[in-house]
Amino acid sequence: MKVLLTGGPTREYLDPVRYITNRSSGKMAKALIGVLLKRKHKVTAVLGPCGVKCPKSVKTVNVETARQMKNSVMKEAEHADAVIMCAAVADYTPVKVSAVKIKKSDDILRVRMKRTPDILFCLGRKYGKKKVIAGFAAETDKIEENALRKLRDKKCDMIVANKVGEKGAGFDSSMMNAALFFREGGKNHFGKISKNRLGYIIVREIERLRQTKNK
Ligand code: PMT
């Protein structure tokens, strides 16, 4: 398969020196890239700033903002059989980016924010019938309820839900507290699992879903 994968965070600039971002080390994306290459898939990675170095065989597109990520993902998705949205995309971006460094004045700084494009939603709408689309859901609470809502609203085939905000799993860690939910029905709870093992399970599920879509 040709697989497009996103990873890392996005950065939404306030001015030339400051930005708002999400937590993501890129470890989950790195684990997925490793498994995809081992299983002989052709990989394109659209990565936010996370320091992940991809092997030469991976077409790597480095981006910063959610808007840049969307543009690259929608372009690269045309050639893909499956897309995995592992990136932690910022949901809001400042309405205005100041051209100069914002000076300290009042005690409180108010920043107006607007929604960023929902890349997974756009992918699901455009390619949901033809390509396998897998999303992630990073949640602190109501994991299953939120994951199922994202699965439905974003029209993807699979959501990898993960509980974040606890020590020993999630951001930065080599472990994940994860569960898979499928559009076709069914779920699989793993509890704490290594990102490498989870990457393997995700890739095998994508291979299976690709076969059912091809029928
Ligand atoms: O990088 P690590 O430190 O290894 O951590 C991995 C991870 C926890 C960041 C990762 O596994 C993860 O959960 N990524 C998704 C985080 C996230 O943004 O979740 P969300 O529930 O806010 O978004 C749901 C889905 O929509 C995600 O697939 C996300 O990529 C996508 N999305 C979100 C917002 C947006 N504007 N566009 C999107 O496409």
Morphology call: globular
CATH superfamily: CoaB-like
In whole angstroms, the N-to-C terminal distance is: 15 Å
Helix content: 25-40%
What's the CATH class, please?
A: Alpha Beta
| Strand neighbour order, sheet with most strands | 5-4-1-6-9-10-11-12
Number of helices: 5
Give a description of the structure.
There is one protein chain. This protein has a single domain (2-94, 110-214), classed as CoaB-like (Rossmann fold, 3-Layer(aba) Sandwich), CATH 3.40.50.10300. With 215 residues, the protein is an alpha/beta fold. It has an 8-stranded mixed β-sheet with strand order 5-4-1-6-9-10-11-12, with helices on both faces. The chain has a two-stranded antiparallel sheet with strand order 2-3. The chain starts with a strand and ends with a helix. It is built from 5 helices and 12 strands. Residues 24-28, 66, 85-89, 91, 116, 118-120, 135-138, 150, 162, 164, 170-172 line the site of ligand PMT.
Which terms summarize this structure?
215 residues, alpha/beta, Rossmann fold, 8-stranded mixed beta sheet, two-stranded antiparallel ribbon, 5 helices, 12 strands, globular, binds ligand PMT
List the helices and strands and how they pair.
Elements: E1 2-7, E2 11-15, E3 18-21, H1 27-38, E4 42-47, E5 59-62, H2 66-77, E6 82-85, E7 92-94, E8 113-115, H3 119-127, E9 132-139, H4 143-153, E10 158-163, E11 175-182, E12 187-194, H5 195-214
Parallel strand pairs: 1-4, 1-6, 4-5, 6-9, 9-10
Antiparallel strand pairs: 2-3, 7-8, 10-11, 11-12
Helix pairs in contact: 1-5, 2-3
The structure holds ligand PMT.
Ligand PMT binds at residues 24-28, 66, 85-89, 91, 116, 118-120, 135-138, 150, 162, 164, 170-172.
